[in-house]
Amino acid sequence: MAPTLASSRFSARFGLATPIALAPMALASGGLLAAACSHAGALGLVGGGYGDLGWTQREYGLALEHGERERIGCGFIVWKLDEDASALDWVLEQRPRALMLSFGDPRPYAQRIARSGAVLVFQVQRLEQVPQALEAGAQVIVAQGGEAGGHGMDGLNGRATLAFVPELADWLAAHAPDTLLLAAGGVADGRTLAAVRLLGADGALVGSRLWATAESLAAPGAKQQALRTTGDGTARSSVFDILRRKNWPQPYDFRAIRNALHREWENRIDELRANPAAGRAAYDAGVQQGDFERAHATVGEAVGLVRDLPGAAEAIARMDRQARALLGD
């Protein structure tokens, strides 16, 4: 039997109306966006990101106040937790429905997450990362393709969603059949949601489409720039990490809109890394002035499918409705 949205194991496990999870995008997936997703029948993951305790407490508190608690969770960057896990520990005290980790070794956090009762969701970019995730007790694996916005693996190491998802689906079916699989990267409408179900995913982790919504904390100027950008208009590099003073380890880099400041430095990355002052001054001025030819807008290749800024509930309903029509639900 062909997969449908109604038959999604992810929806059944989390009591969802549609097999969509909000990507926990740092500084964009705030509490009101997560709450709106939860009311729309999706899993709302607050973007705990770099582990700022005050930000996480405020935004997760908003998610619990305004959302459906049983559909609320949080996500963190592992290598930052290795420096300070206080925000993770606070979130776990709130008994989240799910806790998503990315970019590092999840095993040191496995026991405390398990004790909280949260479902561990772990994001991978390569098949070789999956056994470590399973050892940590991950019940949901996210297969992130290189098309995704924000951080992911660089061009040498990353995978494309179209090939990665079915390969990982086959691997899990053979080695860990109860483990659920979400696809991330390029999923921004009903066609792409239906496609990843057909590829073997139980659902999708959605970033760019939900970044470009009314509730997202992304800057209004960044959202407007995204509406003018096609899928050709993003690039993956370390430029914005250097400009933002984010010391990301290899092999991870960052996809965002390829604006004027990015183009100025993208072929001189070693020079930028050695002498970043001028580039950082331009970037900082862009942020202060709301100039997104210098400041960054964090979206993936699916920005070319984003043509408006609806509420999150409307964006999710459209995706769900179109996917059901295509899959014959």
Itemize the secondary structure elements and their pairings:
Elements: H1 9-14, E1 20-22, H2 31-39, E2 44-49, H3 53-66, E3 72-77, H4 78-81, H5 86-93, E4 98-102, H6 110-116, E5 119-124, H7 130-135, E6 140-144, E7 150-153, H8 161-175, E8 180-184, H9 190-198, E9 203-206, H10 208-211, H11 220-227, E10 234-237, H12 239-243, E11 252-257, H13 260-265, H14 269-274, H15 277-289, H16 312-327
Parallel strand pairs: 1-9, 2-3, 3-4, 4-5, 5-6, 6-8, 8-9
Antiparallel strand pairs: 7-11, 10-11
Helix pairs in contact: 2-3, 3-5, 9-16
Explained architecture:
There is one protein chain. Strand 4, helix 6 and strand 5 form a beta-alpha-beta unit. The protein has 16 helices and 11 strands. The chain has 2 domains: about 230 residues, Aldolase class I (TIM Barrel); about 70 residues, no CATH class. Helix content is about 40%, strand content about 15%. It is α/β, with parallel strands linked by helices. About 55% of the residues are buried. The strands form 2 sheets. An 8-stranded parallel sheet has the order 1-9-8-6-5-4-3-2.
